[in-house]
Amino acid sequence: MSRTVPPAAGRSATEEALDRPFGRLYSRNARAVISRGLMATRSSNWLVMLSGFFEPVLFLVSMGVGLGAIVGTVEGPGGGEISYAAYIAPALLAVSAMNGAVYDSTWNVFFKMHFAKLYQGMLYTSLGPLDVALGEIFLALLRGMLYATGFTAVMGVMGLITSPWALLMVPASVLIAFGFASMGMGITSFLKTFQQMDWINFILLPMFLFSATFYPLSVYPEPIQWFIQAMPLWHGVELLRQISVGTFTAATPLHVGYYLAMTAVGMLLTTLRLRQLFLK
Amino acid sequence: MHNEAILPAGTRAGSPPPRGTVIAAENLTKRYGDVVAVDGISFTVPAGESFGLLGPNGAGKSTTMKMIGGVTGRTSGSLNIMGLDPDSSGPEVRAHLGVVPQQDNLDEELRVRDNLIVYGRYFGLPMSYLRPKADELLEFAQLTDKAKSKVDALSGGMKRRLTIARSLINEPHILLLDEPTTGLDPQARHVLWDRLFRLKEQGVTLILTTHYMDEAEQLCDRLIVVDKGRIMAEGSPARLIREHSTREVVELRFGSERNATIGAELDGIGERLEVLPDRVLIYADDGEGALEQVASRGLRPLTSLVRRSSLEDVFLRLTGRSLVD
């Protein structure tokens, strides 16, 4: 690319922007995207927000209390006996962290990208694509944290919390949501039609049902166990289940590491894709 | 209407208005794969000018606008916006720009006034500046009584005015308008033109694309006629008409059957003849005189009209095609 523009006297804004990491992509103003999101929420869909909170609670009541009456107690992570409701509650929390983050970073982003043209408007301002990505992901995480706090409170009320460690489920849920949100946004950037968006549900539903959510991994033959363990949700389920009773093993840092890696890869993918999509 | 002091001096968020050249494009080229959208165009725009890009759909106007805004990179050539290269310092360049895209992309989840405030936040502007500024711009856009309305309750013209008001939130030196009045009814267009004219009076540099001749003639000091990514002609509307067309035009309709064969029978009348599928145009400095000659040859058109030459005729002359199909 030829640059025949005469250099301005002294250091130009261009040079400074190039000096900064991601100068072209990031203007250190993700908070503007965040405050926009909060304003939009204030005026809109409280019902959708509430449904996201109630979904895992309804599952917990139906499966935990209803089915739990037949199942009785099961073996928890530390080997101790816990009620079936206490066994599935952390798993449902992980599922809700996943669903919330994925919804926010896929359907929401898809709509804003292709229909509301919201990002096009934002990128005609001083904002860069990374400001937009960080802002949107932060909002997804904020929502995830509210849900997680609410659900943990419900667990407390139902007497399913037996260890103070359980409070750590809230930040751990945010980490799980971070992994899914950053990956989800990156993947969404490749999708062009509603039909393609349906693939996301096609992946999420089996992951929800089979990631040792309602019964231990040991029920599967070994090859399937390996497959499940490669999927992200299983790590979330295990992590929160361990935290809920305060039993940690050598696998705990592995679960955390899985999500850190997922977040890093997702953010990288999202940023590269936004650059391709909007700064072509 | 009583909103004269619209953008009072001294409250600008940016630096004082620039002097000299604000946009310089040299051999600007954009290729998408094998398709050349913009094919080596060069132009400069001095501060305060109202500069138009006139051409049919697909001429490369919007692509040029996007390159100026730094949201589309160029394939080759150079581009300088107020001393900055939009490719490498997009955010800084856009801080000086106001952008009115072809399709309104207002934030439907926010109310009218919040649209302005939130947009200002994207530029990193403080609330203490934005609150009075938003009210001032609502006044300018004649939307004060709609401040708390939802965006989708606005009419097409109101949405367009809100989009323009939004683009002014950072007090840009350069306003990019991509087809600003496409899809609006005549009355809404005139209201909009009036607003744009006021901005021009305040020294804002306007860059606008349009395929409406009347719009170009109303708003542009100078324009380039673009077709297939190339500049076909450049100048003020009046000069372009003078150079590329006659003073007047006679439009004749003989019905679609007859139009094709009538050319030979009209030969010699006026300076030039243009046979279109639906009508025949005779270019002549004296339109009435030409019309009399048509009648004296015993030809009876279904309708006839004598009018002044417009940029439409310039475009037709330069490219052999109409602007609006």
From TrEMBL, chain A:
Record membrane topology: Multi-pass membrane protein
Source taxon at top rank? Bacteria
Q: Which UniProt keywords apply?
A: Antibiotic resistance, Cell membrane, Membrane, Transmembrane, Transmembrane helix, Transport
> Has the keyword Transport been applied to this entry?
yes
Domain ABC transmembrane type-2 span(s) in chain numbering: 47-277
Q: What is its main location?
A: membrane
- Record-annotated membrane-spanning stretches: 46-70, 82-102, 165-187, 199-217, 256-274
GO molecular function, one example?
ABC-type transporter activity
Q: Where in the cell is it found?
A: Cell membrane; Membrane
Q: From its record, what is one biological process in GO terms? A: response to antibiotic
Q: Name one GO cellular component term.
A: ATP-binding cassette (ABC) transporter complex
Q: Does the keyword rRNA-binding apply?
A: no
Q: Which family does it belong to?
A: Belongs to the ABC-2 integral membrane protein family.
Q: What is this protein called?
A: Transport permease protein
TrEMBL record, chain B:
Q: Name the principal localization, coarsely classed.
A: membrane
Q: Does the keyword Translocase apply?
A: yes
Q: Does the keyword DNA damage apply?
A: no
One MF annotation (Gene Ontology) recorded for this entry: ATP hydrolysis activity
InterPro entries listed in its UniProt record? AAA+_ATPase (IPR003593), ABC_transporter-like_ATP-bd (IPR003439), ABC_transporter-like_CS (IPR017871), ABC_transporter_ATP-binding (IPR050763), P-loop_NTPase (IPR027417)
User: Start and end of every ABC transporter domain?
Assistant: 23-253
Q: Where is this gene product found? A: Cell membrane
Q: Name one Pfam family in it.
A: ABC_tran
Q: How does it sit in the membrane?
A: Peripheral membrane protein
List, in alphabetical order, the GO biological process terms annotated in this UniProt record: response to antibiotic
- Which cellular components does GO assign to this protein? plasma membrane
Going by the UniProt record, its keywords in alphabetical order are:
Antibiotic resistance, ATP-binding, Cell membrane, Membrane, Nucleotide-binding, Translocase, Transport
The record's PROSITE patterns line, in alphabetical order, gives: ABC_TRANSPORTER_1, ABC_TRANSPORTER_2
Q: Which family does it belong to?
A: Belongs to the ABC transporter superfamily.
Put simply, this protein is called: ABC transporter
Organism, scientific name:
Arthrobacter nitrophenolicus
